[in-house]
Design a protein that fits this description.
The protein is α+β, with helices and mostly antiparallel strands and 628 residues long. Among the domains are: 116-125 and 169-193 and 385-478, Gamma-adaptin ear (GAE) domain (Immunoglobulin-like, Sandwich), CATH 2.60.40; 197-380, von Willebrand factor, type A domain (Rossmann fold, 3-Layer(aba) Sandwich); 549-627, Immunoglobulin-like (Sandwich). The protein is built from 17 helices and 24 strands. Strands 1, 10, 12, 13, 15 and 16 form a 6-stranded antiparallel β-sheet that branches. The longest helix has 24 residues, at 53-76.
């Protein structure tokens, strides 16, 4: 619809694309924060208002009489005894209201020995916090403490996992290490990667004036054009644009039926203008997705791309995000994409949490290419719905600390999540050992329950290992997870006090034994930028390969969007995709740096000989190895 792109519209001349909207009604006053409820659960004040006039009059008379009688009774009571003089300590405390009250007896942490605890690491594709933290660290900046979600680092980085066998939906591996009287345990959960269903995707794109900053609109355009190459025949696409008005220039575009130039033309013509009424865009996107027909056994999804800088319409994050629950109730899955470094984290976090969806962050061309290129299927395909994780411990163990989003012994306290195809999560927890030493023969169980994304049928699987088996497993996962949590403490210390040297010392000690992990090497470099007062040299295991006509074959357990070869002859980058995993270069002999663009840049050096050669780069669990 070309009129969607008329930039100089007249506000006094309504059009088919921009119908005049009635003015918003004045907001109704909010109820008092505390309202006494009657027996039926309705506010007592409302129940009284609906009673007959005669009854209300009688009640008031009775109340007045009761009040008078009470006053007369109180006047006849003897005076209360005088208060005892306050003690010296009480006087000092009473004059210092800033000091919290502390009991005389020291408090000790209570442990639930042998308890069953429900765990959540949030959605497996909610990565925006980790992406922003890493960007800020690379710039040597601090991040507001509320935006640092340590568990998202465990979702973002890669670990050693096992692929589900056969028709299995999940597979779990576990490792553990003892530290004093605590046992650190890491569960690595890997989801299957089945062929994806036909996709019904409604894109809700923010084209308001704020999208002009930082090249945000260019990120969106680049992402959507990259995405077009990932769509499959039969996928259906809608595009809703909003600023302080809304229109739908593209509806029911079918891949393989319609000319690809139609989609490309609409994307290229998007221009920032107007205010940001996200509520308006979400409601239009919901209506467009809801009126689709023939949706049986199709993947119905709405993807919102916005900086969420609300400045017109409904600007309350709580009410704007409430529509997320409606999406989920109607079987429409929700994905949020935050654009730019300063997107409103609160809005997208609330929105996707209500809709049990994921949200990611676009802040660089490399991230755009990975999210909408090799990582696109993982962004739009859910494997399981209403997923819950329950940790069952023996009487010899108790949960001391969980490093995820939330944990509770009450099932209803933990919101279930949707799990995305091909993604993994690591659940890290410290367990208290009752005897002070590992109960090697006792079993630890992780129960996973969910609804199948295609059939809706409930399923459940229990994974069980003894403490001894976990201690005998490769400790790489638990060590890497603990190192990443220590890195999050470095960021928190920088944010809250500015002094991060102690936290950095802990992080540095936890990287022992991880010298072959390219992702940890990258994070170690970031930690030094965050704490400029510390000095250190991180060394990775040198890897020898060769080339002149350089052919790099990538075998990775994560999406790798490209390979860069930096040699004395120059710096060259080749893009990769799910179906194209070979990069070719023409480089000079000598030392070259190869950088694979995964969740973070993974770098190693190779010695290129004076003959042509092939190099195979293997990526597993964040570790990089390149060999002839």
């Amino acid at each position: 619809r070309p009129s969607c792109f008329d930039q100089g519209y007249d506000e006094d001349a309504p059009t088919a694309v921009y119908p005049r909207r009635a003015p918003r009604p004045a907001p109704t006053p909010s109820p008092a924060p505390w309202v006494q409820l009657d027996g039926a659960g309705a506010p007592a004040m409302e129940a009284e208002a609906s009673a007959p006039r005669e009854k209300r009059t009688a009640d008031r008379k009775a109340g007045a009489a009761g009040s008078a009688m009470s006053e007369e009774y109180r006047m006849s009571e003897p005076p209360p005894p005088p208060a005892r003089p306050p003690l010296r300590d009480e006087v000092d405390d009473a004059n210092d209201w800033s000091r919290p009250w502390t009991p005389d007896v020291p408090q000790q942490q209570a442990f639930d020995w042998g308890a069953s605890t429900w765990l959540s690491n949030d959605d497996s594709m909610s990565l925006a916090s980790a992406q922003r933290v890493l960007w800020a660290a690379n710039e040597g900046r601090s991040v507001p403490a509320g935006r640092i979600r340590p568990h998202e680092l465990l979702n973002y980085f890669t670990f050693d996992t096992a692929a589900p066998e056969g028709d299995a939906t999940f597979e779990v591996t576990a490792s553990a290490e003892a530290h004093g009287d605590s046992l650190s345990v890491a569960f690595a959960v890997q989801g299957a990667s089945p062929p994806r269903q036909p996709l019904d995707l409604t894109l809700v794109v923010d084209r308001s004036g704020s999208m002009r900053a930082e090249g945000r609109m260019e990120y969106v355009k680049r992402g959507l054009l990259t995405m077009s190459g990932q769509l499959e025949r039969g996928d259906r696409l809608d595009l809703v644009l909003f600023d302080d008005r809304v229109c739908t220039p593209l509806e029911n575009y079918v891949v393989g039926r319609d000319d690809p130039a139609i989609l490309e033309d609409v994307v290229r013509r998007m221009r920032p203008e107007g205010g940001t009424d996200l509520d308006l865009g979400l409601k239009e996107g919901y209506d467009v997705a809801k009126r689709k027909v023939g949706t049986h056994r199709r993947n119905r999804r709405v993807m919102v791309l916005t900086d969420a800088q609300l400045n017109t319409g409904d600007v309350n994050p709580h009410t704007v995000s409430a529509i997320g629950a409606r999406f989920d109730e109607d079987g429409i899955r929700l994905t949020g994409v935050g654009v730019g470094r300063d997107f409103n984290d609160e809005v997208l976090d609330r929105l996707t949490e209500k809709g049990k969806g994921a949200y990611v962050y676009l802040g660089s061309d490399a991230v755009v290419d990975r999210v909408f290129g090799a990582g696109f299927d993982g962004l739009v395909q859910t494997l399981a719905h209403d997923v819950r994780f329950r940790l069952d411990l023996p009487e010899s163990l108790a949960l001391e600390r969980f490093y995820g989003e939330e944990a509770s012994t009450v099932k209803e306290d933990i919101q279930p999540i949707h799990y995305y195809a091909g993604t993994s999560q690591v659940f890290l927890q410290d367990l208290k050992m009752r005897s002070g030493r590992p109960p090697t023969k006792d079993p630890v169980k992780l129960e996973v329950s969910w609804r199948d994304a295609r059939t809706g049928e409930p399923e459940k699987r229990v994974f069980s290992l003894t403490v001894g088996q976990m201690l005998e497993s490769d400790p790489h996962n638990v060590r890497k997870a603990r190192a990443l949590m220590a890195f999050s403490d470095v960021m928190l210390a920088r944010s809250m006090s500015g002094d991060c040297e102690e936290a950095y010392g802990t992080f540095s000690s936890r990287t022992d034994g991880l010298g072959d992990d390219a992702e940890i090497a990258y994070v170690a470099g970031l930690a030094q930028k965050v704490c400029p007062s510390v000095r250190g040299e991180w060394t990775t295991r040198p890897v020898s390969t060769s080339l002149v006509d350089l052919k790099v074959k990538v075998d990775a357990d994560i999406a790798v969007s490209g390979v860069t070869a930096s040699c004395t002859s120059g710096r060259v980058t080749e893009s990769l995709s799910a179906s194209s995993t070979v990069a070719r270069f023409r480089v000079s002999p000598g030392t070259c740096r190869l950088t694979l663009q995964g969740v973070v840049p993974m770098t190693t050096t190779v010695e290129v000989p004076e003959v042509d050669a092939d190099v195979r780069c293997l990526v597993r669990g964040g570790r990089l190895s390149c060999d002839l």
